[in-house]
């Protein structure tokens, strides 16, 4: 009885979550295998962006080097699978935990740095990462990287997929479902994290470190914890990324990847749980869609079209970062939230207008 | 020994390039407490403008100052259009905006000028001259001389002119300056213009050595970060000293530590940044930071 009551009284956003989850579960049955692989990569970006969101949006520490943590996760999995012939799926949690531990340790010197210096140091880390990877050639395969054989879907997944769609499951589709499972668990964990003690402590630190310390919050502990959790997300994302792409090489993890993560976090909206999902999808499909769209337009000279393919993502990302920061610092999630609140006020007949003022938008960055 | 001295001279020359870019970072840091992540890309863009001018037949010694003027105007325009709307926003917003600016400029340069590396002319020959037993190329000496002139000019401007005094006042006490009739926001714009011009010098000096392409400054900016942090990020003198130290250290490490070699020189810069930030966050010449609650 009570469960029916709970369902009936559930706020609309729970229904939204159910719809979104069903959408992603059903997606591979209506799109082809290649598109499933694209969506898997968008979800992988979303996981990494969620990690960045916990760090930047909730604990107020800016990292421009999350591509480096993704690289660490990806290489951990790749080396375990490639050299030690481990089952790839088993390496994912190992990569996550290792990266998380490294991130936690990284968070300790980061405590001493102001926000600006932290940004600077992590940016330098992101730039140096590709050349650091090249060094231990026997371990990382140097410039050539490591190739990974695509995983074979297990029997139960094959049967279930064939029963629904009537066609055989490809390894890309299997990777999609593994990624989706990871994303669901990690988003659920993040949602719980930010609503409870640790999340509140992190937000208090973000909004005023001294005030938080005065209220008895262990500032150093929670800041390093945020770094560790954030790196764990990036590590898992990196590990999945290696599996989805099929190889890891130094060029898989350029500075541009770290920028792409930041763009995703900012577009989606910092300090919001749906933000990283929106951001991941945008950051992944924006350059791809524009690159596919431009060559189909016959009025654009082919010479320009080929330049757009190379320079296009950088130009769009840069313009988007600047415009969002100036006009909508809370990203799409922020726009939706304020829009929804305004709509509700309008529908209720201006209940808040009597009090004379609208609460200001929370500025999180 | 002779080779060692030569490494030091060429280290000082690259150090001069780092120092100019670091000085540009310091100018903006002093104006508004911000590290400009787009400084390198602004310099790269200015260098492309110089390249275009020279390719159109303008002589080097006219193109050089002309580019600095264009870079100055460009810096002011960027401050007015991009930075001013977020001037009072939290530091993270500003950092993200400059990073967006860097990405945008990089893409635009690729879009307009292409990704083909181009050789950039240098007025100094690569012939060498014997100084105290070390062979130094005219190009290295030229880079050192040009950098020194720029740094001296900035020093004189900031310390011995009214404009410099007003700029420093606007940076340190914006409220008081405003009450005294200083247009603080325009002083910030002036700081951006100056920084952009100084950065352009470093780009034009680096281009003959590195070949000009949109990603040319991506590594130089890391060395400049290291230089600025080492010198103490608010000290112009520190930027110069830091630049020279970083240049020499990186050069020597590349030449004499086999593990570092050519490809891990950038990691040396990262190590310098991390070591300074953790051990002595104010750098060599910086003032200790007092935080008020």
Molecular structure report:
The complex is a heterodimer of chains A (365) and B (293). Helix content of chain A is 76%, strand content 1%. Chain A contains 16 helices and two strands. Helices cover 73% and strands 3% of the residues of chain B. Chain B has 293 residues and is mostly helical. In chain B, 51% of the residues are buried. Chain B has a two-stranded antiparallel sheet. Chain B has a single domain, classed as Orthogonal Bundle (ABC transporter involved in vitamin B12 uptake, BtuC). The mean pLDDT of chain B is 85. At the A-B interface, α6, α13 and α15 of A face α4, α9 and α11 of B.
Gist?
The complex is a heterodimer of chains A (365) and B (293). In chain A, 76% of the residues lie in helices and 1% in strands. Chain A is built from 16 helices and 2 strands.
Q: What class, by secondary structure content of chain A?
A: mainly alpha
Strand order of the largest sheet of chain A: 1-2
Please report the two chains with the greatest interface, counting residues with C-beta closer than 8 angstroms to the partner's C-beta.
Answer: A-B, 48 and 49 residues
Gyration radius from CA atoms of chain B, angstroms: 19 Å
The protein's oligomeric status is heterodimer
Mean pLDDT over the residues of chain B:
85
Spatial order of strands in the largest sheet of chain B: 1-2
User: Helix and strand string of chain A, N-terminal first?
Assistant: HHHHHHHEHHHHHEHHHH
Mean of the pLDDT scores of chain A? 83
Overall tally of domains of chain B: 1
Major sheet characteristics of chain B? 2 strands, antiparallel
Q: Can you tell me the CATH class of chain B?
A: Mainly Alpha
CA-CA gap between termini of chain B: 54 Å
Tally the helices of chain B: what do you get? Answer: 11
* Beta strands of chain B, count: 2
Looking at the structure, what is the overall shape of chain B? globular
CATH architecture title of chain B: Orthogonal Bundle
Assigned CATH architecture of chain A: Orthogonal Bundle
CATH topology of chain B: ABC transporter involved in vitamin B12 uptake, BtuC
Q: Please report the total strand number of chain A as a whole number.
A: 2
CATH top level label of chain A: Mainly Alpha
């Amino acid at each position: 009885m009570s469960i029916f009551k709970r369902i009936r009284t559930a706020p609309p956003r729970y229904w939204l979550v159910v719809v979104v989850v069903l959408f992603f579960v059903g997606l591979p049955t209506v799109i082809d295998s290649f598109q499933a692989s694209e969506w898997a990569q968008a979800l992988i970006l979303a996981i990494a962006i969620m990690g960045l969101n916990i760090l930047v949006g909730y604990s107020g520490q800016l990292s421009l080097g999350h591509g480096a943590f993704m690289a660490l996760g990806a290489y951990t999995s790749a080396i375990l699978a490639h050299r030690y012939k481990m089952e790839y799926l088993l390496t994912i949690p190992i990569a996550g935990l290792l990266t998380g531990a490294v991130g936690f340790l990284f968070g300790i010197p980061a405590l001493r740095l102001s926000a600006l210096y932290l940004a600077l140091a992590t940016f330098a880390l992101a730039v140096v990462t590709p050349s650091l990877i090249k060094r231990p050639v026997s371990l990382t395969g140097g410039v050539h990287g490591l190739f990974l054989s695509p995983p074979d879907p297990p029997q139960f997944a094959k049967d279930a997929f064939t029963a629904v769609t009537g066609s055989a499951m490809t390894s890309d589709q299997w990777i999609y479902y593994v990624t989706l499972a990871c994303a669901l668990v990690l988003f659920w964990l993040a949602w719980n994290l930010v609503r409870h003690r640790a999340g509140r402590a992190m937000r208090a630190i973000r909004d005023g470190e001294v005030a938080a310390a005065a209220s008895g919050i262990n500032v150093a502990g929670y800041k390093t914890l945020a770094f560790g959790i954030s790196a764990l997300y990036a590590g898992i994302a990196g590990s999945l990324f290696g599996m989805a792409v099929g190889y890891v090489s130094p060029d898989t993890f350029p500075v541009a990847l770290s920028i792409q993560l930041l763009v995703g976090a900012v577009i989606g909206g910092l300090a919001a749980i749906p933000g990283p999902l929106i951001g991941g999808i945008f950051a992944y499909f924006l350059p791809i869609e524009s690159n596919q769209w431009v060559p189909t337009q016959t009025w654009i000279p082919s010479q320009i079209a080929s330049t757009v393919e190379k320079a296009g993502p950088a130009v769009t990302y840069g313009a988007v970062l600047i415009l969002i920061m100036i006009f909508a610092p809370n990203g799409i999630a922020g726009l939706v939230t304020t829009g929804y609140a305004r709509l509700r006020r309008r529908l209720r007949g201006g209940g808040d207008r009597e009090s004379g003022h609208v609460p200001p938008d929370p500025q999180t960055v | 020994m002779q080779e060692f001295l030569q490494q030091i001279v060429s280290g000082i020359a690259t150090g001069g390039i780092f120092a100019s870019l670091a000085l540009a970072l310091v100018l903006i840091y002093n104006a508004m407490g911000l590290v400009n992540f787009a400084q390198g890309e602004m310099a790269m863009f200015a260098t492309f403008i110089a390249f275009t001018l020279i390719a159109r037949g303008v002589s080097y010694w006219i193109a050089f100052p002309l580019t600095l003027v264009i870079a100055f105007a460009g810096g002011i325009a960027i401050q007015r259009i991009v930075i001013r709307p977020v001037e009072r926003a939290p530091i993270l917003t500003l950092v993200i905006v400059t990073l967006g600016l860097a990405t945008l400029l990089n893409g635009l340069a690729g879009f307009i000028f292409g990704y083909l590396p181009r050789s950039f002319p240098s007025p100094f020959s690569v012939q060498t001259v014997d100084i105290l037993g070390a062979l130094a190329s005219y190009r290295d000496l030229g880079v050192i001389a040009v950098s020194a002139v720029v740094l001296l000019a900035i020093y004189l401007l900031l310390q011995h002119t009214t404009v410099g005094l007003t700029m420093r006042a606007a940076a340190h006490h914006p409220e008081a300056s405003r009450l005294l009739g200083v247009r603080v926001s325009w002083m910030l714009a002036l700081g951006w213009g100056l920084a952009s011009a100084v950065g352009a010098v470093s780009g034009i000096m680096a281009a003959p050595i590195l070949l000009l392409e949109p990603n040319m400054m991506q590594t130089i900016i890391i060395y400049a970060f290291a230089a600025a942090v080492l010198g103490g990020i608010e000290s112009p003198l520190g930027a110069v000293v830091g630049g020279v130290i970083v240049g020499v250290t990186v050069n020597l490490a590349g030449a004499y530590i086999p593990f570092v070699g050519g490809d891990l020189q950038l990691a040396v810069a990262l190590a310098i940044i991390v070591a300074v930030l953790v051990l002595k966050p104010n750098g060599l010449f910086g003032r200790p930071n007092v935080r008020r609650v």
